[in-house]
Amino acid sequence: MGWREVVYAAYERRVAKELPREAMPRHVAVMLDGNRRWAKARGAGAATGHQAGADKIEDLLTWCEQAGVEYVTLWLLSTDNLNRAPEELTPLLQIIDNAVVDLAGTRRWHLTLVGAPDLLPERTARSLRESIQRTTDVEGMTVNVAVAYGGRREIADAVRAMLRTRAARGQTLEEIAQDLTVEDIAEHLYTKGQPDPDLVIRTSGEQRLGGFLLWQSARSEFYFCEAYWPDFRHVDFLRALRAYAGRHRRYGT
Predict the structure, then answer these.
(1) R_g of the chain, CA atoms, integer Å
(2) Is 118 an active-site residue?
(3) Residues 6+ apart with CB under 8 A from 9
(4) Of 33, 97, 196, 198, catalytic
(5) Which one of the listed residues 35, 81, 196, 236 is annotated catalytic?
């Protein structure tokens, strides 16, 4: 082990030791950003970056487990990503499919699919659902796999589902509008029944949500990391937890 590795290991241990266990987030959401730029910097194609990013996922989930996180949401593919050229989108979908198959195969985590799978090719959507189904009896950490996900689409789908449910009960539009609450819509989100994310992490240096969990992140803390997703290290995750633990969460302002 070289001196850099020794220093890094010592620093990592120090950061981990500083973390107050009572202040850890229950739900961490991660925007796995920067795969293409990571690959470009190495003179490689986009698929190389996407695969490197997929290979990092299990590490992240292990770190979350170790920190006592109960829910993790991974944004793997946005609805906007579906507009990419077929020569990039096709291998990306296969990489995502393989990654979810591998995660399900570990039998360590309870996977759920959030997004609009009807926008995906039928084979991909079917494979993802089958992988998710294989983890229904797993009692480990819940991992939301966000594929074909868009925040505006989710809110529109939730309102649509709510209206259909109320209409099925015989309510008129005027009656629905009169007593509609925030909770009524929240009950139809993709993540219904789960706590909202306490901490949202975005890699690659971009400092924007890009439509990720628009409803659920209203009270979340945000952490933006300069590293591209394939380069995201355990110490980067620990720094995010440290930043979260050090903030005084204020609601409403």
Answers:
(1) 19
(2) no
(3) 1
(4) 33
(5) 81
Taking residue 63's Cβ as centre, other Cβ atoms within 10 Å add up to 20
247: tokens are 């903030």
Domains of the chain: 24-150+197-244 (3.40.1180.10)
Q: Global pTM?
A: 0.93
Determine whether 81 is an active site residue: yes
CA distance 217 to 207: 14
pLDDT tens-digit map of 119-139: 999 999 999 999 999 999 999
Q: Residue 131 in contact with residue 147, Cβ under 8 Å? A: no
Nearest CA to 185 among 210, 209, 211, 216?
216
3-state secondary structure of 234: helix
Q: Name residues whose C-beta falls within 8 Å of residue 89's C-beta, 6 or more positions apart in sequence.
A: 81, 82
d(CA 243, CA 223): 8
16-21: long-range pairs with CB below 8 Å, 24+: 16/238, 18/242, 19/67, 19/238, 19/241, 19/242, 19/245, 20/245, 21/68
> What integer is the mean pLDDT of 203-218?
95
Q: Which two tokens stand for residue 136?
A: 């229904």
The pair of three-digit structure tokens given for residue 188, joined into one six-digit string: 């139809």
Distance CA 149, CA 75 (A): 7
